[in-house]
Design goal:
Elements: H1 11-30, H2 35-59, H3 63-92, H4 103-115, E1 118-124, E2 128-133, H5 135-162, H6 166-196, H7 204-220, E3 226-228, H8 234-249, H9 257-269, E4 275-277, E5 282-284, H10 286-290, H11 297-307, H12 315-332, H13 334-354, H14 369-373, E6 379-383, H15 388-398, E7 403-408, H16 412-419, E8 426-429, E9 437-438, H17 443-456, E10 460-464, H18 467-474, H19 476-493, E11 496-501, H20 508-518, E12 522-523
Length: 524
């Protein structure tokens, strides 16, 4: 084996590979939870690996080793820009089916990497090794690339047409233009010349550097800010501030995905007549807000905010919207405002309390004590002879959108009669067999039942008044372990758990162990 041939022309591949890898890592680091960023990372990584393998292909000490490096490089070149097609499709609409767009590329890439007929030739000491495809494979590979080029160009033009603002449209024009000029045209000409003259100076790395520089520039363009169409009243100003923050929190700004997502959220909230495309910006149309049902908007906003973790960061700004909506409605009628507020509490009460939104309400507004008393993700211990207080709390939470699961040592009929709780929400802990019964010894079924409830129901509240029965059937240590499992479940799923125990049924040290084991327990 001869020495490695470090040629000046090969340096372009190293520079291009490092640059494309750096840009890809930077983009994905901005928002790791955004799927489109990972697709972009796959695109950039494929380009980088292709450049690195071509660098090794050019400087390899033997033709056989150079051929293997070229085969690896050919694989990554084949799959690289199909990832770009996957990306532009995903930017417009999140659909898993788009992954099928890269399947043909991987099939061709594997075939090409294993069986592609080509010759490795020595170009010159300055250029290193070069390659030449067999005629039939060269035409087949060209047609394959043309097919993906047409698909990418078609989707790119569609995105440009659908872009609602000038800056977003400019992003896509730059990205598509750089792809056309440096890849479609530049790479095609370079490969054509190399097929007829393997000693032609290779400039593929330079072309890829230029393509990535232009893409990086397009990604760096700022998103549009929302501007008002005319002076605002207090409610409109609160909405404008919230929408600006909401828009800023949406992941995917660099790729322009956030603009498409923002349009979807605006439509879901019902503000399509308020946020309008203008000349280079998004216009907040005050008249559109005036003509809408302002009482309905906070409800739809809350449903969206509760669905996404990133959106919860906007609740501070939404507090002003919520409070100003109440004040605006009260100008028409205090009864209307109070009725609206009561409906919001029934639908979103626990969320409003936990996020501090209710704290922004005017002082004269009465906020139910139950929403101040209980916090999601907490477990509360009640030491009482009969579980009256715990069941009373369950009844109160049902008024504000909670779903309940009561696991009781009493027959469901007696629970309903004594505490006025619906039988459908009660599971009977008993050795008798029945449809809604659990044996005190069946710990696995108990854990599974509670787990399925808290994972599938939000907000949810669980009441357990039969810890003494579980202790008698399984021993104290197992009953303590169950409480710790409940604590972890409620914390993980933002649910509330109420434990009602009769202190006469436990030793003093057992009660102390219960409180110590639950640690952050709120004892009543």
């Amino acid at each position: 084996m001869g020495p490695w041939q470090f040629t000046p022309w090969a340096l372009q591949y190293v520079i291009g590979g490092v640059l494309s890898l750096a840009v890809s890592l930077y983009i994905v680091s901005r928002s790791r939870e955004t799927k489109s960023y990972w697709v972009f990372f796959a695109f950039g990584l494929s380009i980088a690996l292709w450049l690195f393998f071509i660098f090794l292909h050019r400087i390899a000490p033997t033709s056989e080793l150079s051929k293997w490096f070229f085969r690896f490089g050919l694989f990554f070149l084949t799959v690289a820009h199909p990832f770009l097609l996957f990306l532009v499709l995903y930017l417009r609409k999140e659909r898993r089916v788009w992954i099928l767009s890269i399947v043909p590329a991987f099939v061709v890439a594997f075939i090409g990497a294993i069986r592609a007929p080509f010759d490795i030739v020595w170009a010159s000491p300055a250029l290193g090794w070069s390659y030449k495809f067999s005629p039939y494979f060269g035409w087949f590979y060209t047609l394959f690339q043309v097919g993906y080029m047409i698909a990418i160009l078609s989707v790119g033009v569609f995105l440009i047409q659908k872009a609602r603002t000038r800056i977003l449209r400019r992003k896509y024009v730059i990205i598509l233009s750089s792809y056309i000029i440096f890849y479609c045209a530049g790479m095609a000409v370079t490969q054509f010349l190399l097929q007829f003259n393997p000693t032609f100076p290779p400039i593929a790395g330079i072309l890829l550097i230029l393509e990535f520089l232009f893409i990086a520039y397009a990604l760096a363009l700022p998103i549009e800010r929302i501007v008002p169409s005319k002076p605002l009243d207090k409610l409109a100003r609160a909405y404008l501030n919230f929408l600006r923050i909401f828009q800023d929190k949406i992941p995917g700004k660099e790729l322009g995905e956030s603009s498409f997502r923002f349009d979807e959220y605006v439509e879901a909230i019902g503000l399509t007549n308020v946020i309008l495309p203008g000349s280079g910006e998004l216009v907040f149309d005050v008249d559109g807000l005036t003509n809408m049902d302002i009482g309905h908007l906070p409800d739809t906003i809350l449903r969206t905010v509760k669905e996404y973790d990133w959106a919860r960061e906007t609740t501070n700004a939404f507090s002003s919207v919520f409070a100003m909506t109440y004040q605006t409605l009260s100008l028409k009628s205090e009864d209307t405002a109070d009725e609206w507020f009561d409906q919001m509490l029934k639908r979103h009460g626990t969320f409003l309390a936990e996020q501090g939104i209710l704290a922004a309400m005017p002082k004269q507004v009465k906020i139910p004590k139950i929403l101040k008393k209980l916090q999601s993700g907490r477990i509360y211990l009640f030491q009482e002879e009969k579980p009256a207080e715990a069941y009373q709390l369950v009844k109160e939470t049902l008024r504000y959108g909670f779903a309940s699961l009561c696991i009781s040592k009493l027959h469901p009929g007696k629970v309903k009669e004594r505490y006025d709780v619906g039988k459908d929400s009660i599971l009977w802990l008993t050795f008798e067999k029945g449809e809604r019964t659990i044996s005190p010894k069946d710990i696995d079924k108990l854990n599974k039942t509670v787990s399925e409830f808290v994972e599938g129901t939000r907000p949810g509240i669980v009441l357990l008044d039969c810890l003494d029965q579980i202790k008698f059937a399984n021993g104290f240590q197992k009953s303590l372990a169950i409480l710790k499992d409940l604590r972890n479940l409620c914390s993980k799923n933002d649910s509330i758990v109420l434990i009602s125990v009769n202190p006469e049924m436990f030793e003093k040290q057992e009660l102390q162990a219960i409180e110590k084991g639950l640690k952050e327990v709120k004892t009543e």
